[in-house]
Specification:
The complex is a heterodimer.
Chain A lengths: L9 H6 L2 H10 L3 H5 L6 E7 L12 H16 L4 H8 L6 E5 L8 H13 L7 E3 L5 H4 L3 E5 L1 E5 L3 E2 L24 H4 L9 E12 L16 E5 L2 H20 L11 H7 L11 E7 L7
Parallel strand pairs in A: 1-9, 2-3, 2-4, 4-7, 5-7
Antiparallel strand pairs in A: 1-8, 5-6, 7-8
Helix pairs in contact in A: 4-5, 4-6
Chain B lengths: L4 H27 L6 E2 L2 E2 L5 E4 L3 H5 L3 H5 L3 E11 L2 E11 L2 H8 L6 E2 L17 E4 L2 E6 L2 E7 L4 H15 L17 E2 L3 E3 L5 E3 L2 H7 L15 E9 L8 E8 L3 H15 L17 E5 L2 E8 L2 E8 L2 H18 L1
Antiparallel strand pairs in B: 1-2, 3-4, 4-5, 5-9, 6-7, 7-8, 8-9, 10-11, 11-13, 12-13, 13-14, 14-17, 15-16, 16-17
The chains are: A alpha/beta, B alpha+beta.
Amino acid sequence: MKDERHVITRRDFIRGTVGAAVGTSILGFDWSEAEAKAVRSSLVTVVRDKNAMDSSKNVDSAIVKKMLDQTLTGFTGKKNAKDAWLSLVKPDDTIGLVPTDHLNPTHDEVTDAVRSSLVDAGIPKKRIIMAQGDPSMPKKCTALIALPALKAHWLTGIGTVFKTYIMYSGSPDSYHEENSAKLGEIWNLPFVKGKTKLVLVDALYPLCDKGPQPDPRYKWAYNGLIAGTDPVAVETVSLQILNEKRKAMRGEPWPLSPPPLCVEAADKMYKLGTSQMKEIKIEHFGWKQDLLL
Amino acid sequence: MKLSLKTVFYLLTIIMTASISEGATAKMKAYKLDIPKTVGVWTRPDSPRLVDSTNIFKYMNGAGELYLAYGFNHINVYEYSADNQEIISVELYHMKTSDDAFGLLSLDWASDSAALNDSPADKTIAPSSRTLYGSGLLRIWSDNIYARVMAYRETPASKEAVLSLGRAIVANRSIPPEPELLNVLSHTIGSDWKLRKDRIGYFRSYLVLNSLYYVSHENILNLDISTEAVTAPYEKMSDTENRRRAQFLFVKYANPDLARQALEHFHKAYLPEHKQNFAASPMTESPNFFKLEDGWLGYKLHDKYIMLVFECPDQETAGIIIQSGLRSALFQK
């Protein structure tokens, strides 16, 4: 009977063995090999400005542009946004911007700020395209900028970084419930792998409960941008912010349910980065109140 | 005139189709709701958008799974627009039963009552509010309709418009009781355990169960549209600092065989290291208990019912909660 497939349950999360359980039951992979790897390090920046939105939740484009500049220089260590971009992309790249349009859509102001900042850095307009959609979209690009908005999701727990490319799979329905653990594999498809030069999470007005439809009661003005080149580290920080907000809202632990499987799997199985908070260096700039980190 | 067998069959098919259509039309008429064409400065188009099981995923992507997990019929969607104002959307979910509509409301009680058609508080197990409002979103359970009325920007004017639409939706509609299955819950257990009414959830699907209380990413209790389930935590009143809690789950299957198969599946997946040893036992027979990582788990199979308690601090309390649920279930029969 020992050969029977392990079913992931609440007990795996209580015991802290969910990673191993996901590995053996869904992905057919022995987690223990990954555990022995050397300690890694990833940088994630969190830039906030309390005036990024007004009381009616209108976004101030000029402030977002400033926050983006701060993100780029803070993240790359370059002296200005232009140099920062040119350390991430090449002028002859075809750059795909990948916002999300569902549940808690990426603000247009964020996408526009990225586009104009790239143009200011010398990237020709015609080489910057909107690349959300089917698998043909990333095939047109040599570089991708992932622009998800921070949100929970009722079928996968979190629906931020790894869900951004779900349409690139050509079969989004295959990545729900327990199969959400496999979301990381999309990032390793031949026409996607290695193309993501920056993950920039729109955390201006996140959604901390799962939906499944937009629910203003669970949105709050975080007024932030979260960025990094390690998608797992960015998702891990995003997850921490959602969980802390949920706890603050109810005054008691209120874990995402179902718990997300994709984050640890993206680390251990798909080797896309680190899901260990101790391996993530968080650089914070700007507004400190209710940082949730 | 002699008619061939084929012709007779053909005519019969036409007559039957016509009478079925007539019945369906009559039913649709019963569903028709008069909601105002104009509310405040907002106006809607003449006809709603119709969403059913064939196009629900196009309308709301994966969120459609939630509605199909209950007895779902269709949605009427209206969008109210006005110059220089954000829209107000009205979604009327026509469910197969009032219980299904209640189930959708029960997924989240965390809003203030809009007090449009509440039940008397002493007659309900769940919160008595049938209309809940928060931050621009009004949610309604009105007979077999679950409604979401949402102002994309909350202002005093849009709030008034949303509530006004809510009043129109509930007007002259019957107010059936909450699902009978909720009677398996007790307001208190013994002198020390109290039901968290604001966490009661009624459902038929493991996806919904997982959004309320995570058990497994797989359907290990074999829940489907033919099952009915309710879950809620009981909290220890004398221990407010530590908030000790036990999660109760009661599932009613279509028949005893399905209940037994479901418990076998659950045991195998959730308690693989423990030997299965249960029977569809008489009421007096003790439930099965297991000491797990997060406390005691107890379960009992009786007839077509399964009762489970998770995270209980002690075996005795788990037993009391289960027996209380079972007694109530049998009393209803």
